[in-house]
Design a protein that fits this description.
alpha+beta; Alpha-Beta Plaits; 3 domains; 384 residues; 10 strands; 3-hydroxy-3-methylglutaryl-coenzyme A Reductase, Chain A, domain 2; 10-stranded mixed β-sheet
């Protein structure tokens, strides 16, 4: 198969893709009618995929406008959402309408660092202590090793977790407007080589899972990864009734019994209705790494009745997004970012604030629908 027509596995011309597509059709015994209908120059994806044969298109809609009162996102925004789940965009749009009519959502970024946590093999506990002490004494040399690999990233924190003949070193990096995973990995490898050459410790893996990347983990709920973002809204009593067809008390009770108690009983990390839903649709639309949706899945949603008004807040511990590099370079995803004024340098925190408010809108609408007993009806009308 790989030799068919002089097939080039890493070629990115349209002809290369046609050759690969024909080989796959022959091997699988199928005929592709749509996959080859690519609306962009194949070369655009040269840093995003291997063995490219075409594209898979996902329906793209928009929600909003939503009024955001952020430090970086300040104003009214339309938010692109790519999904195949009927009713999602309508639900988020309803939440955004209520947020806007309530005066807007306040949002802030409280942490911004990408992590990588190598695991070292050490001889014994005494050697583990020696390595930790060497790290403490040599921060300038470690920072120099990082700066030798990147002009955009810098080391902001080192945490050490000893475990007998294992030593985990969690490195946190500022990565500018890139999501920063590749940057953090390359810089961490340079740090590991320095530690190895000076201490005798042996790097077993540049990722020892205490990062923790693309997996739900309590350490990320507590310490954050990427950007930790908190968004809130206060919905007046009359608007809760007229627009959400519920009461603040019933929505708060639904959140407590469903998200907090139900989430605790199931061992859930975070406590929310469906935060990953909004994050996935926005990530796919804007060229983010879809696997990083797991960070948003650990969102904590809280609700209170304040004399009949509804207060709702989401704490999103790990918004791992970028506005440069990766999939943001692709033409469709670039346009989706431009739709929010979020493409390019200086826009990553703005995008993170929009992500959190979009999650807030989806949580508001869904919890209200559940409190009012309308969730099934909405899906029956829109998603069948």
């Amino acid at each position: 198969m790989g030799e068919r027509k002089g097939l080039k596995n890493r070629g990115y011309s349209e002809e290369d893709a046609e050759d690969r597509r024909a080989a796959v059709e022959e091997f699988a015994g199928v005929r592709f009618e749509h996959i080859g209908r690519c609306g962009m120059d194949y070369g655009c994806a040269s840093k995003n995929i291997e063995n490219m044969i075409g594209v898979t298109q996902v329906p793209l809609g928009f929600a909003g406008p939503v009024k955001i009162l952020g430090e970086h996102a300040d104003g009214d925004f339309l938010v692109p959402l790519a999904t195949t789940e009927g009713a999602l965009v309508a639900s988020v749009s309803r939440g955004m309408s209520v947020i806007t009519r309530s005066g807007g959502a306040t949002v802030r970024v409280f942490g911004d660092a990408m992590t990588r946590a190598p695991v070292f093999r050490v001889r014994d506990l005494a050697h583990c202590v020696e390595v930790m002490e060497w790290i403490d004494r040599n921060h300038p040399a470690i920072e120099e090793a990082v700066s030798s690999t990147t002009s955009h990233g810098r080391l902001v924190r080192i945490e050490k977790f000893p475990d007998g003949r294992n030593l985990f070193v969690r490195l946190s990096f500022s990565t500018g407007d890139a999501m920063g995973m590749n940057m953090a990995t390359i810089a961490s490898e340079a740090v590991c080589r320095l530690i190895e050459s000076n201490t005798g410790a042996v790097m077993v893996s540049v990722s020892g899972n205490m990062c923790s990347d693309k997996k739900p983990a309590a350490i990320n709920v507590i310490e954050g990864r990427g950007k930790t973002v908190v968004a809130e809204v206060k919905v007046p009593r009359d608007l809760v009734s007229s627009a959400l067809h519920a009461t603040a008390e019933s929505i708060a009770e639904t959140n407590t019994r469903k998200n907090l108690v139900g989430g605790s009983m199931s061992g859930m990390l975070g406590a929310n209705a469906h935060a990953a839903n909004m994050a996935a649709a926005l990530y796919i639309a804007t060229g983010q790494d879809p696997a990083q949706v797991v960070g948003c899945s650990m969102t904590l949603t809280t609700c209170e009745s304040l004399d009949g008004d509804l207060y709702m807040c989401v704490r999103v511990p790990a918004v791992e997004v970028g506005t440069v590099g990766g999939g943001t370079r692709l033409p469709f995803q670039k346009e989706a970012l431009e739709m929010m004024g979020c493409y390019g340098e200086g826009k990553a925190r703005k995008l993170a604030e929009i992500v959190a408010v979009t999650i807030l809108a989806g949580e508001l609408s869904t919890l209200a629908a559940q409190a009012a007993g309308q969730l099934g009806n909405a899906h029956e009308r829109l998603a069948r």
